[in-house]
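Translate sequence into structure tokens.
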Amino acid sequence: MRGRPPTLAFGVIGAVLMVIAAIQATHLLWDYAHADKDIAAAAARRADTALRMLQALHTQTMAHRVEADDNDPVVQTFDATMARYSHDGSDVALWMVMGPKVAAWQLASHNRTIETPRDAVDRQVLARAREVQSYDHDVLRLSRPVVLGQGAAADARCMSCHGGRMGLRPGDVIGAYSARTTTGAERAAWWQSYRDQAWLVGGLAVMGALALSLYLRRALLLPLAHLAGETERMARGLIEDPVDTGGRRDEIGRIGGALEDFRNTLVQKRALSDYNAYLASHDHLTGLPNRTAFARTLKEGLRLATAGHGKLACAVIDLDRFKHVNDRYGHEVGDALLRSVGRTLRETLLPGETVARLGGDEFAACRVCDTDEDLARFVARLEAAVSVPFTWNAITLTASASIGFAVCPDDGLRIEQLLNNADLAMYRAKAEPHCLSARYDRDMDERARHRSALAADLSHAVERGEIVVHYQAQNDTRSGRVIGYEALARWIHPDRGLISPGEFIPLAEETGAIVAIGEFVLREACRLAAANREGICVAVNVSAVQLNEGDFSHIVHQALVETGLSPARLELELTETALVTNRDRALHILRRLKALGVQIAIDDFGVGYSSLETISLFPIDKIKVDRSFVSAFEADPKSRSLLKAIMTIGESLQVPILAEGVETPSQLAFLRSVGCAQVQGYLFDQPRLRHRLAFDIPEDPAARVGAA
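Result follows.
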């Protein structure tokens, strides 16, 4: 429950203190059981220290004596010192004991100092020639033997004296150093330390008990009181705040969990209702308001604008080439891009402004503007927001968008009208390459209706027989011989007549009608080439939409099978843009087409942005130079240099070059001089219908001129 961290802390502290107290109590019991042993060890250490001092003093005395008997002053000083330390009243009584041979020699020499064993310990040391220690009734005895030839008794003088005079041999016991001490001081110190530890253990136990009691109070009593308060709060209908169980899994936690389940049951309908209301008014991907919520905002803005409180600006924002992002990087990146744009738009908003996602890659924004300057700043901020770079897993994209806006009351007084007009303005901005935004004007309605009607007619143009195929010859530069024909789609509208390809081809690509048109042109061209026995090749343009829709290689294979045309006589022309729009897919399809034996040509070469990369990556059989280079070479020296460079590239790659748009003899002469192998243009031929081609009618130059 509440206060969980301190509750846990007190519990842990109390448990740790009690464990430490228990461990220390165990140590106290162990120490008490081994008290005598520890006290004896301490006394033994004190006795050992005294014996070492005695040995050092005796060694120094023997080293400085002058006479061999007891009359030596140094010996007398040592004897006096020993007399002071040898009585039983000292903390440590020290004395020396002579071995039997040494004592006998001393007695025979009438020396006064004869140290005889005082007790059984001394006798054991002399007999065993090793240290003896005993402990009895708080009295510690320690005796250490002095052996000739070992330790200090290995001195040359000692060996001479005891060996020569007394007849001892190395290994015989000369005597012993003895010490007797009581353990009273050690016992008193031990008991003092024991009492201190006992007080510490008692203090730890008391503090542990207090911490545990506080833990029990916080862990049990206070949580129970809290649960009682939660129950009373829920009984009064206050169910907004969740029941705090503190993450407990004991009985109290289960009781709290049951109360929380009960509270969730009470608020379920209300929460579900709120969630449904949110979903109904917000976009699930970006979290922005959806079209329904945006319409409500527009309704309020229209009310203010019609009441004279400023003008309502409504902007429609459509991302450019969003389908390309989805096709190239996948829908996951596309969704991330939409979320990023939505977040950027939301962050750029000022109070009183609203942004929403209408669907797909289309957003909308609105605000009430007091002046034209407010409107301009509003649109400028939207333009900046949709141009922010976007990064996803090392992929960096710079989003671009087309923005169209309409203003109430100038451009409409209804929500649908305002949105439609802003949408029309957006399409105008999208159609103009360097225009980010555009405002609605009334002329757009007429253009939009015309475009919509044209798109509707175009969708049925193939089945109605309105699409026809014209063919333009491709000639050898040196001989002028026809080496192939390019198939060109033409639309003959029943009311408007012949419509320019520059007008209906982009519309067909935008609406998807180019797929049916392209398939029709492909079959017609293959059928024409198959009927020709001279082995003339036919070239067919392929749109980027055709590559990305369906199995294009299968469509080509079917056309070849149905018409019986050899694949080597079919040449498919693709622009650089079509190849790089979805490079991986295009490369896969081109490899399948090459496996069929179809020839691949790159059209409008030189106007793309990755020409060299394209011809090195894709299997290209021919390069068609864009007509803009041919038409400009006489006036622009740079075009001459570029044409020469392209010819050099083709020669190095062993790929033939075809120049489009050849209209004058001077252009042909220049192309011959730079090594261009093939040409196409009005100088040789104009696009003609099938039945007007030279190989379908008798070879009559006058007839050809008349047909042209």
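Note: The radius of gyration is 56 Å.
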